[in-house]
Design goal:
Length: about 500
């Protein structure tokens, strides 16, 4: 008889206030020590399934639950919520959402302290976790001054200290650069070698190809396919596209063909001349919050989609904030349509979609989010519906933005950009947490924006998205533009090489 780490029997769950179940009639058995990838489009039920395993459903989220969940052969209906942490370690998309302390050492020890373990054992577990996850350089560091990759490691170490047998990772690569993703790969490999059961919910799957034993594909709250390792890695590109799954190999990818009729206008829309940024009197502004820039010059023309890449900390987001007027340059000039504009005059002229969508959503419904700042006379119901339908959000139009999945929130901020009048738009990691289908939809909408006599900038570590959407690449290195080149079949390998240089500091 097989020994199962996780077993679900007829599990269904419907969130309070929702009209239909997020998952229904799930039967699932996961063997101990196996590595299971759970895939599927945004909103397919992946996160809800994981919450049934780690106890957040039904102990934390209110709703209607039915069925049975067994962990290591024990029925979880007999568990208190605190019992789950000793069996299941959960690592969320945004590690900040699971932090309780302000520094790394206390955060790693926090779970053990709450288990009321003896002081000596808490310290021993904390030291062992630090060594196994290899984060000794982060000891005593403030959680508020860390990169996404560093925070991810601390959250894993916090789980490891509680010695769970099962780990659930919910889109762990969503906020990571290339190097941090490969460091995550090595941690997962280490956990697998220790015989841990690993359940990973993920869209960007290239780094998991050599680890997975099995892939479950969810659609509409149901497990539609259950692939073995061999079946998973044998899926053709057409199969992956049909399932809206990303590629397991990056090397064979090619740039998408772009319309040949995108002609540069005689004048650039946006031009920077010898622009620099330093802290000046902003002593409170730390390196973790914003990077320095040195002598930045370039021109951007109507119809271009420009990818901005580089290590974390290279200055990519700082550059966007300067252009938008959120920061003031210490030297140089920034012009729109060859008209030099001060920082205050740039505010509102350039649209910026931030990486963390929660900071940019204010409406009480998806539909009303598009209407914020738009007078009733200028409001266009037909346009709003068309935008939401393009991004697969029309069915969610009455939902509160806070109730959306991460990918859906990301698409809603992009919907706001489609509604904006700005001729220059910056998107900061617009595809974090997006499946292949929605990645392609976002790329198509950016192409549409570019064809409307606009210029679009994309700050991203997502190689698949760069090949899909971008015409040109700016590579920032230590606050300077190190390379500026068109994206072609001949230059795609250069992009992958630059991304693989990675960067683990904050940016």
């Amino acid at each position: 008889m097989k020994n199962y780490a996780v077993e679900l029997r007829g599990v269904s769950y419907q969130y309070q206030g929702h009209s239909r179940s997020a998952i229904h009639d799930i039967d699932l058995k996961i063997e101990k020590g196996s590595f299971v990838l759970i895939s599927g489009a945004s909103g397919s039920g992946k996160t809800t399934l994981s919450r049934c395993i780690n106890g957040l459903v039904p102990h934390f989220y209110e709703g209607s639950f039915s069925g049975e969940v067994y962990l290591n052969g024990r029925n979880t209906e007999d568990f208190a919520l605190r019992d789950f942490g000793t069996i299941v370690g959960s690592v969320f998309q945004d590690p900040r959402s699971q932090f309780f302390m302000t520094d790394t050492t206390n955060e790693i020890a926090f779970g053990c302290v709450n288990m009321k373990l003896p002081r000596e054992e808490v310290w021993e577990r904390t030291k062992n976790s630090i060594e196994r996850i290899d984060i000794s350089k982060l000891i005593g560091k403030s959680l508020f001054q860390m990169s996404s990759g560093e925070m991810q490691k601390v959250s894993i170490a916090s789980c490891y200290a509680m010695t769970p047998d099962i780990y659930v990772f919910d889109e762990p690569s969503a906020n990571l650069d290339f190097r941090a993703i490969m460091e995550l790969h090595d941690i997962l490999a280490e956990l697998k070698s220790e015989g841990k059961t690993l359940i990973v919910l993920e869209h960007r799957v290239f780094y998991l190809a050599d680890l997975l034993d099995r892939m479950l594909f969810l659609k509409d709250g149901v497990i539609r396919d259950d692939f073995s390792r061999q079946e998973t890695l044998s899926l053709s590109d057409s199969d992956l596209k049909r399932l809206e799954l990303r590629n397991f190999s990056l090397d064979a990818l090619m740039p998408y063909p772009h319309p040949s009729d995108l002609q540069k206008e005689a004048r650039p829309i946006l031009s920077l001349s010898h622009v620099s940024f330093d802290y000046g009197r902003r002593k409170r502004c730390s390196q973790a919050e914003v990077a320095l820039l040195h002598d930045i010059s370039f021109e951007a023309y109507s119809g271009e989609i420009i990818g901005i890449i580089g290590d974390n900390g290279a200055g990519k987001t700082t550059l966007a904030k300067l252009c938008c007027g959120l920061l003031k340059e210490s030297a140089g000039t920034i012009a729109i349509n060859e008209r030099q504009l001060s920082r205050k005059k740039r505010i509102g002229r350039i649209y910026f979609v931030m990486q963390d969508s929660d900071y940019q959503l204010f409406g009480d419904s998806v539909l009303n989010e598009l209407r914020i700042g738009v007078s009733r006379k200028k409001s266009d119901d037909t346009e709003d519906q068309a935008i939401l339908e393009k991004l697969s959000l029309w069915e969610k139009r009455e939902d509160h933005p806070a109730a959306l999945s991460r990918g859906q929130k990301q698409r809603l901020t992009i919907a706001g950009a489609l509604k904006a009048d700005s001729r220059v738009l910056f998107f900061d990691e617009p595809t974090s947490g997006l499946d292949r289908g929605n990645m392609l939809r976002v790329a198509a909408e950016l192409e549409s924006l570019a064809r409307e006599s606009r210029v679009v900038f994309v700050i991203t570590h997502d190689y698949e998205f760069i090949l899909t959407a971008c015409h040109r690449v700016l590579y920032l290195n230590e606050g300077k533009i190190d390379q500026d080149f068109p994206l072609t079949e001949n230059s795609k390998d250069r992009v992958l090489c630059l991304l693989r240089k990675g960067g683990a500091s904050s940016g």
